[in-house]
Specification:
It is built from eleven helices and 25 strands. It is α+β, with helices and mostly antiparallel strands. It has three domains: about 160 residues, Immunoglobulin-like (Sandwich), CATH 2.60.40; about 260 residues, 3-Layer(aba) Sandwich (Rossmann fold); about 90 residues, no CATH class. Strands 2, 3, 5, 6, 7, 8, 9 and 11 form an eight-stranded antiparallel beta sheet that branches. Strands 12-13-15-14-18-19-24-25 form an eight-stranded mixed beta sheet, with helices on both faces. The chain has a three-stranded mixed beta sheet with strand order 4-1-10, with no helix packed on it. Helix 4 crosses helix 8. The two termini are about 50 Å apart. The N terminus is likely disordered.
Length: about 575
Amino acid sequence: MKNPFRHIGLFSILLGLLGTACNSEQSQDSLTFTMVLPDTVEQEKLDGRLLLLISKDDSQEPRFQIGDGLNSQQVFGVDVEAWGNAEGRTFDVNSSGYPVEKLHDIPAGEYWVQALFHVYETFERIDGHTVKMPMDRGEGQQWNKAPGNLYSKPKKIKIDPENGGNFILSLDQVIPPIPEPEDTEYVKHIKIKSKLLSDFWGRDMYLGAHVLLPHGWADHPEVKYPLAIMHGHFPSDFGGWRTEPADTSEPCVYSERFKMDCYNHIVQQEAYDFYKIWTGPDFPRVIAIEIQHANPFYDDSYAVNSANVGPYGDAITKELIPYIEAQYRGIGEGWARFTYGGSTGGWEALAVQTFYPDEYNGCYAACPDPIDFRAYCLVNLYEDKNAYYLDGAFGKLLRPGHRDYLGNVQSTVKGQNYMELALGSKSRSGGQWDIWEAVYSPVGEDGYPKPIWNKITGEIDAEVANYWKENYDLAYILKRDWEKLGQKLEGKIHIYCGDMDNYYLNNAVYLMEDFLKETTNPHYNGEVDYGDRAEHCWNGDHTQPNAISRLRYHRMFIPKWTEEVKNRAPQGADLVSWRY
């Protein structure tokens, strides 16, 4: 696609040409915000999501202050199509947003205000649908950091809905490209064109990976290695790896989540310690990879085939992984591959082991996203009628969405979904609930994911829930198919979760454990473990707090698997040459 941002010039527009994105009549004293584009040369008409950001906090730009907790600042959003530089787009008093739902309900006061335009592109998919989506541009599907997105400089203004006023914001700033990471002695970076994904999306689509080579790889050209696959969110480079000690001259950064000072130094030191362990005499020699599979919906594909997101399961398992093994001397057989990860990565580790039982030989799933949809966080998709409310005889309560380790509620399911709705319609927010919907749902008549529930009311669609059940409810699928899967999965399933997971993910693990403990012919012969009062994302280490163990996935699970594989490798498999 031709780049529409290459000729951005100075702001120039006639107020008489201002249009509206909301199609509502305005009185002279209405409160409105009108966004305008700068002059461009040969500019294409733009499609995308236009966001109005309002903040009381001047510590950083408003675009970096949107979240689903109590400290989130304000966002309003509207879809825009065919936007040219000779017209404006206006937010009026009826515009919907989060946390405040209507612009006219913003309390009077002084605020920092900013506008951002999240650019969409047009995809002609293989299923015959034409959809407009935000293409990942190297940032991992982050609307506030996506190269090419337009935004305005923050402006401090006084807002008073009672007195109205029209504020003009010029989107004359462009987020610059992100440089590619550079190869080093140990870490390599690859990107391949995926035929499967390109065919699905109707354009060239790519998969990438950061590859950590084993110590001594260049000195042992005759050796082929097992492959350790860490699943998770979009990694900008190989995570937790550093060849120098922590830079303690850097200012300390306090971790609010872990209540730890100088946590940035701790992270750096843990990464350096891993480098020393990796290159030391006793660590198993394997190839470790972290996959880049950002897509038009999210920073991660969930590593499975999906009607909306595409055949990422097949693309990763049958295109990317064999390519890496061929490039870097992997053994290239299912018995010599294993998966691990936390949260999204935990779900993926278990999912690919379930859907590709012969291609992987062990999964270590920490704090996995819901693996039983009877506990889709705190929603039972098969029995509840509404995702947002708990109903009683005379009243109803908002359903919690996030808690701390003591159970203090910090956000609700409704609030989280309203935030995503402000950021993008039709499952395009890049948020958590939307990517679950995109991966698990059938395609709707409009070409976008069929909603699991009404985004405004929370009313659950039972037909869509049943589709989810049959295709992506891992506990249900394992139970349904254990007769044919059991022999292939014996000893391979390991699940870990804190019993005070922030997103209530432990509830689904309890249900999965109930089934696994009852398995016969064979018994699953794996592991399910819980951390007492441990929050997201506890990964099975009873010796360290979350703040530390979350930084040790590679050093925890690689040695664990290399011991277990002795019992599951086929006769004659090479278990020796890579243990130098």
